[in-house]
Amino acid sequence: xxxxxxxxxxxxxxxxxxxxxxxxxxxxxxxxxxxxxxxxxxxxxxxxxxxxxxxxxxxxxxxxxxxxxxxxxxxxxxxxxxxxxxxxxxxxxxxxxxxxxxxxxxxxxxxxxxxxxxxxxxxxxxxxxxxxxxxxxxxxxxxxxxxxxxxxxxxxxxxxxxxxxxxxxxxxxxxxxxxxxxxxxxxxxxxxxxxxxxxxxxxxxxxxxxxxxxxxxxxxxxxxxxxxxxxxxxxxxxxxxxxxxxxxxxxxxxxxxxxxxxxxxxxxxxxxxxxxxxxxxxxxxxxxxxxxxxxxxxxxxxxxxxxxxxxxxxxxxxxxxxxxxxxxxxxxxxxxxxxxxxxxxxxxxxxxxxxxxxxxxxxxxxxxxxxxxxxxxxxxxxxxxxxxxxxxxxxxxxxxxxxxx
Length: 405
Known about the structure:
- By secondary structure, the chain is of the alpha+beta class.
- Helix content is 58%, strand content 18%.
- InterPro entries: ABC3_permease_C, MacB_PCD, Macrolide_Exporter_MacB.
């Protein structure tokens, strides 16, 4: 019997037991679909976070109070950065194009009978340039607003909807911590960055925040939550990090460890890539367990099939079929089940990826490599787990097989 006849006979056998064949494929279908979907969604999550980091602004460096060891041990880090540090970076570091500082606090914002607890961001006029934000309506505050500690506020897009709905908020008065502020502008949609949702935040001049909302607590100047600096270009980021480190060490008169940490977009992207890659691998491995379970299911069903088809095997061997013919037929049946299950599972996985992309912000991607690997592995599983029942069928004695029937 040649290979083509073995394939035809295997196909007829599987079609004669459609329900059993379908149930045998189920484990492979679930395994393949899960592996492909998990890898695609994991890559989509990685792209989503990378886009969020890129939206922070071009060539951004974050200067954060406290060294890395202190930050790991405690969230309550003493603020070691002041507004004068940001001004020094802007004027004394040649590789920096612009800097801004942020002083964050939680306050209740009220407009008429509507109130909400939001993040109040005290910042500088250079915020728009450094963070690559745009004003949708009105204007942003100026150097004059900051020097005079004017009580003006720029609203995030979502906060504007909460407080004003479809009404234009520009020139309206809102209250922040019992102080009246005039709305002068609304930012475009941006989303959250580093855990801060700017769409639901309110931005005020940093001196106004210190004088009216937070208060000054340091004898060395106005403490800030962190400083954000924009390098002149991507090639200047490493040099800017080195120069900022030297400048702040001199300003803070440090001898030992730094009392600040500098983080760049490149560092953040590498960290995100490592974490998301590990999570994707872990999820794919968990999903891959179902492929193994599916292979065991194939072996179990094929062993049952050998028992049920004892008479057929005996008859075929009695009329001249060799052990190799019987072995080949059962292996082909197992591989066909695995490959068809793999293809159906691939369709299910791709469908899940398309659905996730349509219903969520994740740009889940279809990986040709993962599809090829999943289908190849499923075929290999069919071959591996099909060998035991195939060998058992091939080794049946024809006389014993005919008698047992």
